[in-house]
Design goal:
single chain, about 210 residues, mainly alpha, Arc Repressor Mutant, subunit A, Tetracycline Repressor, domain 2, 2 domains, 10 helices, about 65% helix, elongated
């Protein structure tokens, strides 16, 4: 995955992204993209021979963006609670971002024409978080903090809980305004539930924020 270097290609991609997100993939025509980009069909097709190629390039750019948003460094966490809280907060806020919501709606619609794009977007973002959390859970098991039968499956369950809460928060408006404290509270409750189920004397936290009371 790499971003296009040509200014013309970037201009065309920006125009296509705007229209795809506004009216959907199926309803977007190459003529509409030409008009939005204020370019010629010759230039458009020289860079992107088909609408599928345009979509693929846009998804590549989204993948790079999502990978940057969901990058974690496996240092600085002395306890599992800190790991779960950091990952859960970042993951929850990720799924509340308007641009992320738009990207996922786009790939859901377009997946009928380009079946692999949903998997590509998943592998660029959520899959990386899943791998990171699996590694950290393995480390917590080795350190005696938790007892779980399968780190990968348990990581998936925790992330599904967080993303499910975030997706509910994003409907119907998709607005991220005013959601920060709610994300923190939801993550704190999820972490408490996780450690109560799997932790060895981890205990509960009084980390519920005051802004949502």
């Amino acid at each position: 995955m790499r971003e296009p270097r040509s200014p013309k290609a970037r201009k065309i991609l920006a125009a296509a992204r705007e229209i795809f997100f506004r009216v959907g993939y199926e309803r977007t025509s190459m003529d509409a993209i030409v008009r939005e980009a204020k370019t010629s069909k010759t230039t458009l097709y020289a860079h992107f021979p088909s609408k599928e190629c345009l979509l693929s390039a846009i998804i590549d750019a989204e993948c790079l963006h999502h990978a940057r948003l969901l990058t974690f460094v496996d240092t600085g966490y002395d306890r599992l609670r800190g790991v779960l809280t950091a990952v859960g907060t970042s993951y929850g806020n990720f799924f509340l971002r308007q641009d992320v919501i738009e990207a996922y709606w786009l790939v859901i619609e377009a997946s009928r024409s380009v079946p692999d794009i949903t998997d590509r977007l998943y592998r660029a973002g959520p899959a990386q978080v899943h791998e990171f959390l699996t590694t950290m859970l393995d480390r917590a098991v080795s350190g005696g903090e938790i007892e779980i039968p399968d780190s990968r499956q348990t990581a998936e369950r925790f992330l599904s809980m967080i993303s499910g809460l975030a997706n509910l928060r994003s409907v119907p408006s998709g607005s991220t305004l005013g959601n920060d404290c709610r994300v923190r509270d939801a993550v704190a409750a999820s972490v408490d539930m996780f450690l109560a189920a799997y932790g060895r004397g981890a205990g509960r936290t009084n980390s519920r924020s005051q802004c949502c009371n």
